TrEMBL record:
Residues annotated as domain HTH araC/xylS-type: 148-249
Designated name of the protein: Helix-turn-helix domain-containing protein
InterPro entries: Homeodomain-like_sf, HTH-like, HTH_AraC, HTH_AraC-typ_CS
Domain of life according to the entry: Bacteria
GO molecular function, one term: DNA-binding transcription factor activity
Stored Gene3D superfamilies: Homeodomain-like (1.10.10.60)
Organism, as annotated: Acinetobacter faecalis
Keywords in alphabetical order: DNA-binding, Transcription, Transcription regulation
Amino acid sequence: MIELEKYITVEEFFYEKDDVVNPHASIWGDFNFCLNGILEYEIDGHTQLSPPSYGIWIPSRTTHHCKAIEQTKIHYVAIRFHPNLCQHFSKNAEILGVSFFLRTLVEEVLNFKVNANNLNIYRNLLQVLLDQLIVAPKYNHYLPQSNHPVLKEVLEKLSSPKNLACSLHQLISQAPITERHLLRLCQQELNMTISEWRNRAKILYAITQLRQGESIKKIGYDLGYNHSSSFIEFFKRYTDQTPNQLKSS
């Protein structure tokens, strides 16, 4: 059996608001994600966000740094891969989806106490972890932005807290181009639908508010949900957690 413990390391860290990891690069590749909050990364000059259920793959020899942007402590995980394993991943930074199973698997690895009697079990866990990351959904960016003058203005309106309860149709109908043109432009520039982009913006807002102690009912109302159950269902669909689970993690 391959000695995967020599090729994969799994570490956890805790960051307070405004903590910064200075720019650095490594010959090992990194997969980084938060168990309970949002980190902001800058990777080769590009900003990326890492909310729960999404992590960031950073190839070897890629300069990056990150900053904690929340009011409360962030539980953060770094999975590092030896250069021999980096061939399984992209040569460019990208976002990977973190399923509930993968999240639970990482927590199990972190809690596992390795000794001579269970080393093979630990290696098996690392193999499953590697396999799960290889097949995880891949994205260029969690919440991509655009420099197109019209689309940039629309995205700012869509993500503004004061507009989150407004209907999507109501907001995009005010754009100075046809709705059809705007929808096509969004797909071309962002590689996702405008409704998907807005849902992700809502999730980022909800996570930030939850971590600051806001009530689930209030956040749901801010996002246009008349019933907390509808908001909870929406939140769980994107994060694999209920709002209460995220608050208590």
